[in-house]
């Protein structure tokens, strides 16, 4: 399976990017967020990818960073959410906003995306909460992996949100531990993502 593509950007549309690698042009469906981060055609670009194989087609989806790819993978695992809906969600909301909505049960935020009604938004919240429930704060400590620093309040919510985006509990905890735990959850997630992106 393709993990990433790096090569010359030879074509770009609002929802499509074509990257040439070794003389082959790979057509990737992308979010509006990724489209805004791409360079001009003719320049070098890199996308993290997810291949989707169907009976009638093989499609490639590309993302500017690991957080967006991780969030996409979680979204398409939800019953009733296909790749097109997942792209619509991530074109409307950043990965951290999706993660925070799931962590806090705020399904109304998800309905901002085209094609996502209240029922589907509630299902997304319910199923994504299940995926990272073991990392939710239990009292003042995580009831998850041994050796992960205890966390509560904003720091705990930030670690949970980062886990939804595809980072391990260790990576998330290490990044959040370097920040001021009194900061708002969204700020903690944003700053942690910056650190994790530099590392990656």
So what's the overall shape?
Answer: globular
Say how many strands there are. 7
Order of helices and strands: EEEHEEHHHHHEEHHH
Say which CATH homologous superfamily of the largest domain is assigned: 5' to 3' exonuclease, C-terminal subdomain
Oligomer: single chain
| Radius of gyration over all CA atoms, rounded | 17 Å
With helices defined by DSSP (H or I, 4 residues minimum), what is the helix count? 9
Structural class designation = alpha+beta
Span of the ends, CA to CA: 19 Å
Helix percent reads 40-55%
The proportion of residues in beta strands is: 15-25%
Strand order across the biggest sheet? 1-2-3-5-4
Spans where pLDDT lies below 50 across 5 or more residues:
132-151
Tally of domains = 2
At the fold tier of CATH, the topology name of the largest domain is DNA polymerase, domain 1
The first-level CATH class name of the largest domain:
Mainly Alpha
Largest sheet: 5 strands, mixed, barrel
CATH architecture of the largest domain: Orthogonal Bundle
Protein described:
- The structure is a single chain.
- With 200 residues, the protein is an alpha+beta fold.
- It folds into two domains: 4-63, OB fold (Dihydrolipoamide Acetyltransferase, E2P) (Beta Barrel), CATH 2.40.50.140; 66-200, DNA polymerase, domain 1.
- It has helices at residues 32-37, 66-76, 83-92, 95-104, 107-110, 118-131, 153-164, 169-177, 185-199, and strands at 4-13, 16-21, 24-29, 44-53, 58-63, 137-138, 141-142.
- Strand 1 (4-13) and strand 2 (16-21) form a beta hairpin.
- The two termini are 19 Å apart.
- The model is unreliable at 132-151 (pLDDT under 50).
């Amino acid at each position: 399976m393709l993990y990433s593509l790096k090569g010359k950007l030879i074509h770009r549309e609002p929802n499509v990017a074509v990257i040439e690698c070794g003389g082959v042009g790979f057509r990737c469906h992308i979010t509006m967020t990724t489209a805004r981060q791409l360079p001009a055609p003719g320049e070098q670009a890199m996308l993290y990818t997810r291949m989707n194989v169907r009976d009638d087609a093989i499609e490639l989806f590309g993302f500017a960073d690991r957080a967006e790819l991780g969030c996409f993978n979680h979204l398409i695992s939800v019953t009733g959410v296909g790749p097109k809906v997942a792209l619509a969600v991530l074109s409307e909301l950043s990965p951290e906003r999706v993660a925070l909505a799931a962590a806090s049960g705020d399904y109304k935020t998800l309905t901002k995306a085209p094609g996502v009604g209240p029922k589907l938004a509630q299902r997304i919240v319910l199923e994504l909460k299940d995926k990272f429930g073991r990392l939710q704060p239990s009292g003042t400590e995580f009831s998850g992996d041994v050796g992960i620093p205890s966390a509560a309040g904003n720091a705990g919510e930030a670690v949970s949100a980062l886990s939804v985006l595809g980072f391990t509990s260790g990576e998330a905890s290490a990044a959040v531990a370097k920040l001021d735990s009194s900061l708002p959850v969204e700020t903690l997630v944003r700053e942690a993502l910056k650190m994790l992106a530099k590392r990656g």
